[in-house]
Amino acid sequence: MVRVGIIGGSGIYRLLENPVRRVLSTPFGDATVFLGEFGGEEIAFIPRHGEKHEIPPFKVNYRANLYALNLLGVERVIATNAVGAIDPELSPGTFVIPDDFIDLTKCREGTFYDGKTILKVGGREVGGVIHVSMTPHTYCPEIRGALKEAAQELGLEITDRGVYVCTEGNRFETPAEIRAMRILGGDIVGMTGCPEAALARELAMCYASISVVTNYAAGVGGRVKLTHEEVLETFSKRIKDLSEVLKRSVGKIPVKRSCPCREALDEFLTE
């Protein structure tokens, strides 16, 4: 059984020791998973955008990815994201551990529970029309704590709060959209955080993410034009630090789960 899974950019899995590639079949399609040692233990890594970064955000099979981790017995999921700063105080290069999100996606499959499909979670069956809660914590407090502690030990600039706004993509947002997001309470904006976080909760998994601010969002700080090359350049500069945070955080996540995430499906599970 693999305890921890990581979902992120394809550059991360190259840091795994002795990686083994597996393709897992799920009711929602196939998912490619790499198993290898990372941070002192075996983890499962999923390159969200594919091995060659060929899958755009709106076409990522979020359900297959999360369910594949569930099949491996994963209980803890760490995700990474590249984001733009809505809050002008968050400068490019800053690490952010969000504590809430706003989902503005439009066309993505946002739930496992279609009223028909029967799933297995922790060896027990669950299905039907199920409504999970994203409270009292939108993201797992135990994983968030491990990420924060790891980053602080490395002396990295980190913000331990933030509302992640997820958009459909592929285009970047307009200045008017960013102004609206700020009114709604958004701090950072990206294209991959949803429905990933909610799907993890639907499987009673612990899930938290660490985001790298790669740029100011449209209209923030006098921003006139944003390019994809700029995003890639800033993210690539922080990939080493991000990898070190992930390695340290894996060992800091408690083996025994004491957070509410594990109870998300308790009232729905059957023997």
Radius of gyration: 18 Å
Order of helices and strands: EHEEEHEEEEEHEEHEHEH
The overall number of domains is 1
Average pLDDT works out at: 92
Count of DSSP helices?
6
What does this structure look like?
The chain is α/β, with parallel strands linked by helices. The protein has a single domain (4-263), classed as Nucleoside phosphorylase domain (Rossmann fold, 3-Layer(aba) Sandwich). Helices cover 25% and strands 28% of the residues. It has six helices and 13 strands. The strands form two sheets. Strands 1, 2, 3, 4, 5, 6, 7, 10, 11, 12 and 13 form an eleven-stranded mixed β-sheet that branches. Strand 8 (118-121) and strand 9 (124-127) form a beta hairpin. Helix 3 (141-153) packs across helix 6 (228-252). The chain starts with a strand and ends in a 19-residue tail after the last helix. The model has no long low-confidence stretch (mean pLDDT 92).
Show the helix and strand layout:
Elements: E1 4-8, H1 10-13, E2 17-26, E3 29-38, E4 41-47, H2 62-71, E5 76-85, E6 95-96, E7 100-103, E8 118-121, E9 124-127, H3 141-153, E10 158-159, E11 163-166, H4 175-184, E12 188-190, H5 196-202, E13 206-216, H6 228-252
Parallel strand pairs: 1-4, 1-5, 5-13, 6-10, 7-11, 11-12
Antiparallel strand pairs: 2-3, 3-4, 5-12, 6-13, 8-9
Helix pairs in contact: 3-6
Which short descriptors sum up this protein?
271 residues; alpha/beta; Rossmann fold; eleven-stranded mixed β-sheet; two-stranded antiparallel ribbon; 25% helix; globular
In brief:
This protein has 271 residues and is of the alpha/beta class. The chain has helices at 10-13, 62-71, 141-153, 175-184, 196-202, 228-252; strands spanning 4-8, 17-26, 29-38, 41-47, 76-85, 95-96, 100-103, 118-121, 124-127, 158-159, 163-166, 188-190, 206-216.
